[in-house]
Each structure stands twice: as structure tokens, then as C-alpha cells.
Amino acid sequence: MTVFGTELEAIHFPLVGNSFVVGLFSLLHILLAALSVGFMLLAPFLEFRGRTNPFDRDLALSLTRFTVVVFSVSTVLAVIMVELLIGLFPVTTMWMWNRFRVPILFGILAFILQVLALYPYYHFWDALRRYSLTFHTTLGALAAFFMLLWVLMLDGMGSYMLTPVDQGGIWAPLWNPTWLPLALHRMGGNFMIAGYTIAAYGAWRARGAEPDSAPSYYRHLFGTGWRIGLGGLLLQPFTGLLYALFLRRGAPGAYETLLHGPYRPFLYAQFILIGLLFLGNYLLLKSTRTPVRNSQWCDIGFPVLAVLMVLSVGYPDIRRLFLYALVGLTVWSLFAYGRSALTLPDLSASYVRPLALGMGLLAIVLYLTMGTIRETSRRPDTVNGKISIGDELRQRAQFKEALR
Amino acid sequence: MDLEPLHLPMLYGRLAIAAAALTHALCATFIVGSSMIGAATETIGYLTRNPRFERLARLIAFTLIFTTAGVSFLGVTLVFVLNIFWPQFWSTLFHIMFWPLLLEASFFLAEAVFAYLWYYSWDWSNERPGRKRWHLLYGWSAAASSLIAMLMIDIVASYMLTPRPPDDTWATLLNPTMIYLDTHRIVGNLTWTGFGLAALCAVVHIRSRTEEDRTFYRWAGAVCFTIGFGALLIMPAIGYQYLLKVRHTEPQAFYTLMLGARSWLFDLVALIYSLLIVLGSVYIWRSLRPTMGAEGTARLVLPASLVVVTVAGMIFSLPYHLQHIPGFHVLTDQVINPLGKMQPYKYFAIACLVFFGLLNWGYFSRSFADRLPWWQHAAKQRDRWSPTLLIALSFSAMLMMLTMGWSRETARAYNGYLIYGQITLEDERSTYDGTSPSSLGNGQTGRR
Questions:
Q1: Which residues, listed in sequence order, are joined to residue B381 by a DSSP beta bridge?
Q2: What is the mean pLDDT of residues A346-360?
């Protein structure tokens, strides 16, 4: 038997550093996972609507195909992320997994059930629909439900790192103050990026496919995606407020860091993106060329409110005032331009397609920025008030000492 | 930073990890094998302009997509249970093996990307002739990525049995058994995947409704069987070299497996190996029998060869230390079975198994070139025994893969080690009952 007396050097990821590489793979995973969650929640609903509209049925199949195709890639990105966490932040990772062991095992069970529902749902699409339409739609809804359970468990881990709780049983870490607000906020975000991505794809593919006057599948995609994305966007300020209130109560230090700390530029970036999205929606509505009285007020109101919202980022109460004014103006313009603007969108204006593509991109960047802000607000802690990056460094030193 | 004790028997953790690791390994090895066989099959189809190979390659690509999704989920599960049940060991091993583990996951990511690209661009590639070469490249890229991912994980697996000083990177990566384990696994993957794909073709053959489909799946099953059976015949030579290396590097582990308390596991491997050769020879004989001419040598050689491999298989499976077989003490008090000695009986038996197996394989491979091949023969149309044999072979191959993996792990674990000579199972006890300080900052290496 060989006996080694060896020192181990601490692992430092070359060129970019430990935090950056973990963040990069986390964001890559989150991007695919968020789209998959949004698509999978929409698929059975669209399939149900597909009983009367074949475009919705085809869209449901396309969304499920995307989910199935990116499933492995997204899961492997998660494995890489976890491996980086174990190697580069071992104290945090082991401690978190120890605390969440029961929810994780429960999540694995939900994951298995999700795979068992998702794969027949997609791969035997026609055969199962021929057998029973209700059974097939139910299978899709079950896949979405089990995916949701898994997402809720991960939201629990993410929120716990910012607002940890000490007391309670094995499920207590999940029931931390910001769990449900974060889950709600993320759910709205999932719908938002799923919607705008569908709209962007529809606008891109509709190019030259059919004359703009005729209904086409890709125009339908554009309209449906836009409605879903806009719905998600309009919900975000309310779920965001709920999250902010619980965060301020649960982790006041992190909340202050978020507003006035060194990573404040991220917050500015977030509100610039939100402002641009509201502005983009208004431009899409205008492209319908529906005559609207007093529309010049909207032409001025949207950019002015967006700029004022960005300027008041450091003053949450004033900022919210402008944000809700933007929400109100959007709702008013929706009524003013009428239902047809959303249900049968006009793609003839030259700027509509690039705008739709840009909004898809904006929505994705916004979603990722929001996640980054949450992560940076607790720095230098990895688990707020419990473990810091310093603990990770000390751990490495002790680790080395123990091996000497 | 203290960890909460799990308050569970350690056995639960071992069972959870074993279940996750074995199912993950089964899928992962299937991916490596099927991506290689699939890419090769499509290339042969492209070069020979034979549409049957193209159809088989597409079927293999479909199974690859399914197993890739499965293995990515099982991989996540394995990482989860290791983190929860063996955190001290896992964080130490990860510290030593950070780069191989990270590269393994990265190459698996590449495999997933190329495999999906390969499968979903099939129709696109057939639209224009120039696209087919790109398509072949996707298939081979998926195969190469999965192979490299396996090489990375083999570094970790072999290190756990024959570790070197962790500060010597090259010695750690190229530890004494690394190359041997790699070679053994590559051939083992082809065996298991070959038989697994043959069984899949057999199932579809049984369920086929048209004559054309039945003929195709009978042919496809035979092609996959040829790969699996051929690779099976190479395994003893590589396995012998691998065991020699273990014997020289960690003699205690070798003794545990060959003569010690876990020698019954090696007897089980020998039994399943013999069963594979015998069942494979039966399949060959049954397949070729209807088309054997009165003047051909196969009519005489194949039945005789079948008898020889059956007898050789029985000898090869005989145990030496009878009392090491669980529950055997109820039947006899005898300790040693002299016929179960390696030298000369088992060496002679394995030589017979390989030689006569090779003879059968040669006859079977040659039959593909016949003017009226057996798989197109009318008498085969309603044969249900041959597909059943393929399914039995696949099941046995799967069992052998699991037993071999278990044997390697138990050679360490029976002696109490998670990393041989460095970290013991007892080092994880505090994770379960919290009797000794379970602190991540407390030197969890358990150095002896």
C-alpha cells in the first residue's frame, strides 16, 4: 500500500478566475433552463388551444421539441456548473447540499417523473394523440408540473443563499423568506423570455414566407409570443416589488448593497433594459398603424418615463412610481390600439422584424442581469452571513495544512 | 463550517451511490459504444452506397439521443448523491481530479451537442450529396467526444484503485492501471453496445409487421451481434493484462478479487463470460444451419465447436475457494475445489472459449458475403428463437458490465478504502453520525 505525504495546491481557475467561470456556466445553464421551463409550461396549454387552432398545436410541438433537444445540453451545463462549484467553492457547496439533502432527493424524484412524462409526450406525439387527445395533453401538463417542482427546489437553494434560516426541520431551508417571491418573480421572467423568444423566432422566419395580409404560422408565432412576453413583462414589476419587500426584511444588508454597493451598475443596466423593452412594445403597437387619438402623448411619455426611471434607480420609491406609470401607459395603449394589434400583428413595417429580434435578445439579457444582481448583492459572502469567500480561502489553507 | 450529520446507516449511502453509479455507467458505456458503432455504420453505408447501413445508423443515432438524455440525468443524480452521502471523500477526490472531471463533463457536453446535431440533421444531409460528409463529421465528432470523456473518467476510476502522489500531475493522470482500464473499457463498451443494439433490433424484429422490416432487422441484429461477439473475444487478453498490473501495484486488492472473500464475484464474471460465448455460438449455429450446404465444413465444425465451448465454459466458471461463495457452506464443508485452479484448468478453458469462439465468429462473418445470405432465407421468417437469444445475450452482457464494475470497486471497498491506501469508508462516518468532528475545514483527507 502506498502512503503519500503530500501538499495540495488550491485550485485557481486560470485567466478568468473562479467566480467568473462559475458565473459563466451558471448563466449558460440558466438561459437554456429558463427557456425550457417557459416552453414546457406553455406547451400543454397551447396544445389544448390547438383543438381549435392548428397553429397552436404545431407551436406546442415545436416548443416541446426545443425542450427535448436542449435538455441534455442544459443538464450537462448544470453538471459542469456543479463540478466547478465543488472544486472551486467546496465549503459552500458541501454545506448547501448538506442542508438541502432532503429537498434535493425529492427534486431528483420529480426529475425522474418529469423525464418519464416528457419523452413519451414528444417522441410518441402522433401515436398518443391518436389514442387520446386528453391523455396526451395531460401527459404534457404532468411533465410541466414535475419540472415546476424541480424549479421550486432550485429556487429554494438560490433564495436560501441570500436569506438563510437557522431553525426548523429538514424542509426549513426551503421555507426561507424570499423563496416564494423569488419563485414567482422567476416564473414571470420565464414566461417573458419564452414569449419574446418565440416572437423573435416568428418574426425572423416570417420574412418573405407569405404576404403580410394572409395569416401564416410564423405570423401567428410572432403574435402569440409577443402576447406571452408582454404579459410576463407587465407582471414583473409586481412580483419584483414583492421580492424586494421580502428581501429588504430578510437581508437588509444585501438590499443596501444592491442599491448602493459596488455592483450598482448592474441595477442601472437592468432598468435601462426594462425601459427599452417597454419602449419596444410601444413601437410594435404603433406599427399596426391603427389611428389613435392623443397618441403623441405616448410618443413623448414612453421615452420620458423610461429615462426618469433609469435616473432614479438609487431611489426605489420614485423609481417604482415611474415604472408603474410605464406599466399603466402600456395597458392604456393596449386598449387604445385595440385587440387586433396583438392578435393579428402587422409585420410590413421595415423596422418590426429587427425590433422583434432585438426585444428577444433584450429579454434574455434582462433575465440574466437580474440573476447576476441577486448573486452579487451578497458578496463577499457566498451564503449571506454564513460563509464568505474568505472562508473558502481559509478552508484551502487548512486543507493544505492537514495534508502536510 | 460544520455539516449536519445525516443520522442514517452508512449502508443507505453506499446503496444510493452504487445504484446511481452503476446505472449511470451502463448508459455512459452504451453511449461510447453506440456513437462509435453508429458513426462507423453510417460511413460504411456512405462508402458502399448500401441503404441498409444508413437505416441502421439512423436507428443507432435515435438510441444515442435517448441514452444521452438519460445519462445526463443520471450523471446529475450521481454527483448529487456523492455530494450528500460522501462529501469528505468527494471533495478530496475532486480537489485532486478537478481537471479530468471538468474535461469529462465538457467533452460530454460536446458529445451531446454533436449527437443531437447528427440525429436532427439527417434529412437535411440527404438533400444534397455534399452535405453527407458534414453529417459524417458530426457523427465522428460525437464518437470522439464521448471517447475522450470516457478516457477522462477512467483516469479518476483507475486512480482510486492505484493512486500516485497527488502533487505529481502526470503520475496521477497516467497512474499504473489507467491505460489498461481504458483499453478494457473501450472493448467492453463495444461488447455491451453490440449486444444491446442487437437485442433492440431483435425486439423490433419480433414486433415488425412487414416482411421487408423483418428481413432488415434480422440483418441489423446480426451486424450488431458480430461487433459485440468479436469484441467479447478480445476481452480476456486485455483483462489479463489489467489484472497483472493490479497484482503488481496493489497486491491486496488483487488477492481479494482472485483468491479472497470477493473471489466469487470473479467466478460470476467467468460464468457470465462463458454464457455469452455459449449463447453466441448457439445463435451462430441456429442462424447458419438452414443455409449450410452438405459439402461445407460449417455443418461439422459448428456443432462440435458448440460442445467444446460449453464444456470449456463449465470449467472456466468453476470456483476455487468454495467457502467464499455466499451460502455455499450449507451445501459442503469442502474449502478448495482443485478443478477451479487457474493453472492449468482455467487457462486451458479460456483458451478454448476464445479459440472456438473465434472460429464460430469467422464462419458467421463470412456468411454475410454469401450469394443468398441466411438472413434473407425463407425458413428464417418465423424464427423467434434467434431474436430471443439476442435479447438473452444483451441481458447477460449488461449483467457482466455491472459485475465487472462492481468487482473493481469491491476490490477497494472490501479493504475499507475509497481511494486505495488514502481515504477509508470510516473517514465518512462522521457525515452519518456526527461522532467525530465533521468539519470541512478540518482536514478531511484521512491520510494514513
A1: none
A2: 83
Tens digits of per-residue pLDDT, A308-325? Answer: 999 998 888 899 999 999
CA distance B231 to B251: 28
3-state SS, residue B163:
coil
Cell of B432: 452519518
Chain A interface includes B69 (CB < 8 A): yes
CA distances from B18 to A350, A366, B90, B385 (A): 60, 42, 14, 34
Instruction: State pLDDT tens for residues B132-177.
Output: 999 999 999 999 999 999 999 999 999 999 998 887 889 999 999 9
CB A366 within 8 A of CB A273: yes
Residues pairing with B424 in the sheet: B417
d(CA B268, CA B271): 5
Closest to B445 (Cβ–Cβ): which among A71, A394, A402?
Answer: A402
| Residue B181, H or E segment | helix B178-207
C-alpha cell at B160: 482510486
Q: Which residues of B touch A101 (CB under 8 A)?
A: 6, 84
How far is C-alpha B273 from the chain's CA centre?
12
Q: What per-residue confidence (pLDDT) applies to A32?
A: 92
Q: Does B23 touch chain A (CB under 8 A)?
A: no
Length of chain A measured in residues: 404
* pLDDT, average across residues A142-169: 90
DSSP A89: S
- Whether the bond between B5 and the residue before it is cis, its omega within 30 degrees of 0, is no
pLDDT at position B439: 47
- Check A76 against B108: CB less than 8 A apart: yes
Which amino acid appears at position B87 of this protein? P
Closest CA to B161 of B235, B251, B237, B81: B251
By C-alpha distance, which of A81, A170, A68 is closest to A125? A68
Measured CA to CA, the distance from residue B110 to residue A40 in angstroms comes to 24
> Considering chain B, what percentage of its residues have pLDDT values greater than 90?
56
Enter the C-alpha cell of residue A207.
420574412
